[in-house]
Amino acid sequence: MKSRLLRPVEVLAAWLVLISLQTAAAAQGRIVAIGDVHGALPEFESILRETGLLDAKRGAGGGWAGGRTVLVQLGDLVDRGPKTRACLDLMMELERTSQKRKSGKVVTLLGNHEVMAMTGDMRYVSPEDYQSFADGQSEKVRQNAYKDYLGFMAERADLAGVAPAQPISAQKWMAEHPLGFFERRDAFGPLGVYGRWLRQRNVTYQSEDIVFVHGGLSPNLPFDDIGDLNDQMRGALQTFDREWQSLVKAGIIWRYMTMDEAVLEVQRERAAIPLREVENTKLKEELEKFINLMTWLVSRDNPVWYEGLANQPEAGLGPSLDVMMMRLKIGAIVAGHTVMPDFQIHQRFGNRVFLIDTGMLRAEFGGTASALEIQDGRFTAHSAGQPPRTLATRGAAAGRGASPAASGRGVRQP
After folding, report:
1. Which of 59, 187, 286, 392 is most exposed, with the fewest beta carbons within 10 Å of its own?
2. CA atoms within 13 Å, Cβ hemisphere of 80
3. Cα separation of 54 and 300, whole Å?
């Protein structure tokens, strides 16, 4: 469908609404937003301390030290790096201690890698990550899982009415399922310690007129408001859990399959249905539902995957972004997901979009730990080993100093 060209009066109306929103948000309390961590625990702790959020006594009963600050972590705590489990534990500890002290707020959003962990996409799990879940019983767990897998393959062949496939060699299977693999899958499952916690997190958070999201808000994605986006993701994960268990019970997938393996089995089953004497309509609908669900979860317009705010030309995306922000009554979007090439926080679209993924996991990206501080209409970038940089001011704060937002230009301080 072709998008309708916006009339000049519509664009002007959008700008007027956004300017009024920027002015109204001038007295906002302190917020600190931190982007993708990917298991970089020391760097994560360092930027939390630099922004005054982490108690130096952590490990001896300490935790939240942010007072009335709101910490928003934009997701992708997990995968790639060596300390993803410890990063999750740290966020859970900060949440607990901030609630206990009844000061401030800790918000953890879902990124695409948290969703991947919950749905069995294991492509970016590091060896150290698996090892953090292993214990003295892990070899026994793995051997029992292998026997269970062989039994599943035999039953699967019988269900399909074909000769059993040649099973993967034990050596190759063990290499693909290192110690800790099964414990990690369980930990991120609906009953696991991290799975339960993550399934209660949202994909977006709004504070006054500022929206925080891992990937971004796509003008192409149909949704009513920010709450609707959160409901969509939560509903999708609940449906995924039900469908996964149903397919396991039907003998179509093995409960510990990776997502790629499960999708392959579902596609095979879907292709086989028309060839059978009696077509199972209910099963066919269930398989279609699963495929459609996975298509939505990995859609490039999904808020945990969207990259348009970082990659699309401002002239092309700007008009539709204006209309979407006006409809949602928001003045700024803070997003991660896309590593900035110079490892600095950037702003785009006239200081209405702030991109804060600076490649914190140095071993993978070569970047640095950073945070975006928002207070009284001032947006300040904090990067490890560098002095703070004022990126933009707006509203009442703009009248007391630099005012890039008021001019409508995207100004980045050197």
Report:
1. 59
2. 19
3. 34
